[in-house]
Design goal:
- The complex is a heterodimer of chains A (about 240) and B (about 450).
- Chain A is an alpha/beta fold.
- Chain A has helices at about 40-45, 70-75, 95-100, 105-120, 120-125, 135-150, 165-180, 195-200, 215-220, 225-230; strands spanning about 1-10, 15-25, 30-35, 55-60, 65, 80, 155-160, 185-190, 200-205, 210-215.
- A six-stranded mixed beta sheet of chain A has the order 6-7-8-3-9-10, sandwiched between helices. In chain A, strands 2-1-4-5 form a four-stranded antiparallel beta sheet, covered by helices on one side.
- The radius of gyration of chain A is 18 Å and the shape is globular.
- In chain A, about 50% of the residues are buried.
- Chain B is α/β, with parallel strands linked by helices and about 450 residues long.
- Chain B has two domains: about 1-350, ANL, N-terminal domain (Rossmann fold, 3-Layer(aba) Sandwich); about 355-450, GMP Synthetase, Chain A, domain 3 (2-Layer Sandwich).
- Chain B contains ten helices and 22 strands.
- In chain B, strands 5, 6, 7, 8, 9, 10, 11, 12, 13, 14, 15 and 16 form a twelve-stranded mixed beta sheet that branches. Chain B has a four-stranded mixed beta sheet with strand order 21-20-19-22. Chain B has a two-stranded antiparallel sheet with strand order 1-2.
- The radius of gyration of chain B is 23 Å and the shape is globular.
- The chains are: A alpha/beta (about 240), B alpha/beta (about 450).
- At the A-B interface, strand 1, strand 2, strand 9 and strand 10 of A face helix 1 of B.
Amino acid sequence: MLKVIALSARYGSVQVLRRVTFHVSESEIVALIGANGAGKSTLLRAISGIHRPFEGEIHFVNTPIHTMSPERIVQMGLVHVPEARQLFPNLTVLENLELGGYVHGRKHVLAALDEMFELFPILAERRRQKAGTLSGGEQQMLSIGRALMARPRLLILDEPSLGLAPLIVDEIYERIQALHRNGTPILLVEQNALGALAIADRAYVLETGRVILSGNAGDLMDHDDVQRAYLGKDYRYKWER
Amino acid sequence: MFREPTWEKTIDTNGKGREKAMSRTNVEFLPRDAVHQLQMERLQMTLNRAYFNVDFYRQRMDNLKILPEDVALLNDFRAFPFTTRQDLADHYPYGLFAEPLKSIVRLKISTPGLGDRGKPVVIGFTRHDVAMWQDLMVRLFQQLGITDRDIVQVAFNFSLFPGAFTFNHAAELIGATLAPSATISATMQLQIMQDFRSTVLATSSAFALHMVETMERLGFTGAELNLRLVMLGPDPLWEETRERLENGFRVPVYGLYGVAEMVEPGIAGECSAKDGLHLAEDQFLVEIVHPVTGEPVPRGQEGELVLTTLTAEAYPLLRYRTGDITVLKESPCSCGRSLARITPVLRRTDNRVSIRGISLYPENVEEFLTSLDPDLQDIRLVITTSYGIGEHLEILLARDPARPFPEGNRSQYLDSMRSHVRRALGFGTKVQLVDFERLPKEGLIYKTVFRTLPPLSSPE
C-alpha cells in the first residue's frame, strides 16, 4: 500500500534521514519507533509532502507521490494526524471536523459527521465547544476524527500518546485498534515503544535517520536492542564484544 | 501486500510467549517485486548494524569511503568488498560478532577437516537467529509436504555435522514424530525404519547409498518400508545418486543446501518439482559472480554463489563468497513458489574435497604431513568415489630415499603416520609409501586423484 524506498531528507546541511526503506501493507498496523531526533517526524512530513526528500521514492497505492503537493496526497487518501494535535483552537469541534473533510465536498462532510460522532461520542457532546478548551485526550480524539473526515485509505499517526495520561493513552490505542479492525491500515509513529509494539503487527526501529531493526512487533518487544534503547535496561558495554 | 513471514507466537495462560512453528510460508509465494522490497528493507538494516556494530566492516567501509546509505538499490551493493572465509578465520573468535555475548545463545564452530591445522571459524546465534534457522528448516520440511503425521528418522553423525540437530528441531516443531538414530549401523537403521514405520529419512548421500546397498545385501527392497521420501544434506545431490537411491528406496529423494559459515542446511531446498533448490531469499541476498573477476555473470550462467545475510543479528555476513559454483534460476517453478532456485553445487572454487561428508583441503593435509616428516617430496590424496561421492581416502607419500626414517623402520614409520592422520582427520585412512616417479598425476584438484568405484562393490 505504502512503499518508501531509500528515502533521504535534510534540513539545510543536516541530513536527517539516511536511505530509509519500509512499507505498510493493507490491513496492518505498522509502528515506527525511535528516540528523540531519530527522524520519525521528518519521515512523516516527507510522506505527506510537507518536506521534500532529496533522494528516494515514495509510492502510495502504486503511484509515486514524492513530487505531489500535500493536498493531492490527502485527496488520494493518505492522511496524517500531526504531532501535538495541531487543531484550530479558536474553532469549534464541529468546524474542526468539517475542515478535515472539506477536500471531498459538503455532501461527504454531512454524511461523515454522523459516523464520527458515533465513533467518538464525546465529540458529539462537545460539538459547539472551542477546540482549545478540550482536554488533551479529547483533543487527540478530535485530531484523529478530523483526519478520518478525509476518508483515509492509510492513516498516519504521529505520537498520539504524547502528553496524555496512561488511562487516556489506553483509550486512544483502543480507538486506533478499532479503526484498524474496520479496515484502515495504520502507520503509527511513537516514542512510547512498548505501547506502540503492543498494538502493532510489525515495526521498524529508527536510529539517527537509519532503520536499524525491523520485524514482528512481538519479537521486537523482546529484542535486547529495543529493551536497551527504550526501556533503559541493560546498558551495553564496549568490552562485551 | 504481505506480512512479515515469521513464526507465529502463541500466548499461553501465564502470558509467556512461546514460539510455535507455524511458518507463515506465504513469503514463498510473494510476487518478485515484494521480495525485492523485503530484501531492500532488510539489507539497509544489515548494513547499518554491520557498520555500527562490527569494527571489521566499519573499517572496510571507511577505507573505501562508503557508507551504508550509499546503497539505494540492490545493484549499488556491488560496490562493497567480498568477505571470504579467510576474513572470518582472521577475526577468530569474536571479531565479527555484531552482538554482545550476552545476547548470543548459541555458538557454532566450523572447522575445515584436519582439526587445528585449518583455522576454525566461530559463528554466533542470537535467539532470533536460532528461531530463524529453525523456521527455515520448517519451511524446507513443509515444502516437501512433511506434516505432523510423519515419522522422521534423522540419521547423521551429529558430531561431524552440527546442522543435524536442526532436523530434529524442525521435525519437533512441525509436530512430526522424531526417530533419532544418530550413529548406528546401516543394518540397525533399516531395522528401526521397519519397526518404527519411519516415513521420512534425513541423512547424507553417502550414508543413504550405504543403506541401499545394505538393503540389497539383506535381500529386501524399499517397497517393504513405509518411507515416503528421503531428504539429503549437506553434500550436493547428484542426479546419478538420486537415480540410484530412488531405485533403491522407491521413493522420491530431495537435496538441501546450506553454508557452514551461516546455516547448514536451511538456505535452500528442493520442492517436489525437483527442478533446483528454492533459496530463502527473505533471509539471504543472492549473487552469482565470476569466481576469478568477481563480476556478476549473465543470467543463467554458472558462477560462484555469494550470499549476504539479511536478518542474522549475531554474525552478519556481507557478500560472503561461499566457494560453491552453481546456476541461478529465476524462471517460475511449477510448484508455484516464486523464490529463485539454484542448481545443486556443481563444484568448488577452491580445493575442498569431501569424504563421506567430511570436508578437507589437500593443502592442509600436505602441510600437516610435511610438518611430521620434513623429508617428504610429494604426496597424493587418492579419493575413491561412488556415485560422485567421496567414499574412501588413501594417502600416497613419496619421500627422499636417501634420508633415514624419522623413527624406526619403514613399517613403524607408516604406522606412526597412519595414527597421526587418523587423529587429525577423525577417520582412518590407508597410508602408503611409493616412489616419487610412481605417484599418479594430479587431477584438477591440488595433489588429488579421484578413482571411481564400480557400483555394488563397496568393501563394507
